[in-house]
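Before our next group meeting I need something from you. Please put the record directly below this note.
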Amino acid sequence: MHKYFCVPTYQQLQFANRQLQNLAMVDQVTQISNRRCFDLKFDYAWRYLLREQRCLSLLLCDIDYFKQYNDTYGHRTGDTCLALVAQALKRTVKRSTDLAARYGGEEFVVILPNTDSNKAVQVAQEIQEAVKQLSIPHKTSPVNQHVTLSIGIATVTPSTDIVASDLLEAADQALYKAKAEGRNCYSVNTEVYSVKKFIEILFNF
């Protein structure tokens, strides 16, 4: 008795490989881009805008008091909340060159190439409004009875004096400030400096 096996065509193999690549770039909880995808796109945007000498904005978004949300409603409902917020970000970030990604935990990141600080603030406001429209209950939040976001914003024109991680650090500092100011708000960091050079100066290396 002979057994016959169906050998996949080259096109089928290509399609399967593309599907696997897409899965590797998508966060399975939220169905938006994951950290790996962000790292690749952020590096590409940085190098491209360094060459073009145009500005790059970065938004770091954090769901306020998400631990309390999970403790109150459970992790399954927490995952649903993450997915709803993620999709709201994705709908708000419309340009093909932009990227909304899950950065980790309850934190999201948005890449905005060719976007100055003022326009980045507008996007942040639109994101916060989109999340507000979701009206996700959060009865244990000290700032609101619904889920809210704190957002850190940083903008820079890439140069050889700084690296991409310096912009990320600046956005993180802005996010920290937004949280310190009461959360459910955004903060803008207008100073992007070389962390490496700062450490060298600080310790006289």
Observations:
- The mean pLDDT is 90.
- Strands lie at 56-63, 99-104, 107-113, 149-156, 186-189.
- The CA atoms of residues 17 and 23 lie 10 Å apart.
